[in-house]
Amino acid sequence: MPKPYPEAFREDVVRVARNRGPGVTVEQVAADFGVHEHDHRASRTEELAA
């Protein structure tokens, strides 16, 4: 199983995704951070559940 991303990194990805501009997709944000879209969605789900 891959090692999880550090919490601070996940928080950055979620923050940028939430504040993305019009027309910027979650996929584009994930690509900018070098992660897969599903990794971001999983982090966001965990963050929202907390």
Strand percentage lies at under 5%
Structural class: mainly alpha
Give the CA-CA distance, first to last residue. Answer: 23 Å
- On the 0-100 scale, what is the average pLDDT? 76
Number of strands: 0
Q: State the major sheet.
A: none
- N-to-C series of helices and strands: HHH
**Model regions low in confidence, pLDDT < 50 over at least 5 residues:** none
* Anisotropy-based shape: globular
Question: What is the gyration radius calculated from CA atoms?
Answer: 10 Å
Percent helix among the residues? 55-70%
Q: What's the number of helices?
A: 3
Question: Can you walk me through this structure?
Answer:
The protein is mostly helical and 50 residues long. Helices cover 66% and strands 0% of the residues. The protein contains three helices and no strands. It is globular and about 35 Å long.
Task: Describe what is shown at a glance.
The protein is 66% helix and 0% strand. The protein has 50 residues and is mostly helical.
